[in-house]
Amino acid sequence: MNWYLTLMTQKYASFSGRARRTEYWMFFLVYALITLVLGVLEGVFNIVGTLTAVCALAHLLPSLAVTVRRLHDTGRSGWWILLSFIPIIGALVLLYFMVISGEPQDNAYGPNPKAA
What we know:
Blueprint: H1 2-9, H2 21-45, H3 50-58, H4 60-73, H5 89-99
Helix pairs in contact: 2-3, 2-4
């Protein structure tokens, strides 16, 4: 939960630097759980997508920022996020980039976050 709260408060739209795998995956795990709970609440109260839409809008910038910083950790530019517009293949390549370990040494995007 600390990863999520840190990202939502201190690094809300920070596209510079690097993000560890843990930071990336914990953010999306909490985001998925929040979306799941909101979806259940919408079903119970018969609301049509309003809560999840507001949640998605609130998480748009942080999710883009953490994805770009995760790409930076692997030594890639944030522009690689545009692969998501290529159906299936783009998503699989991005998934691979999010899963692999980051560069152990400092790179052009900053120092290794594991060393900090």
